[in-house]
Amino acid sequence: xxxxxxxxxxxxxxxEIISGLRVANSAEELMRSRYSAFAVADGDYLMKSHHPKxxxxxxxxxxxQWARSVKWIGLSIISTNNGKKGDNSGTVEFKxxxxxxxxxxxxxxxxxxxxxxxxxxxxxxxxxx
Length: 129
Ligand SMILES: [Zn+2]
Fold this sequence. Notes:
By secondary structure, the protein is an alpha+beta fold.
């Protein structure tokens, strides 16, 4: 099983996108690959898949360290809006669960994605408490 929750193994799922073998075909696929990139603490991919205008390049190391310090439990996609093949933007609402300091924590976010030159990018997210 992939980190993102799909049946396929990582190398045939998010791993293909993270390693650059293929591009994400939808906002949801990009979202899943970014979750998996957190799970494997791949800061380079997290930067690459983040739109340049909002990319937190200077925080890359801190993000990697944090991603490595927690235990990633799972991802659930709650809803998606647009972000399909024919679209140039879309949103994905998700919950990502992780253990930090012995406590179960979650990120519940509605993320915005855009597609430019056939590549999907994460732009920003709105958090729910
Ligand atoms: Zn996956």
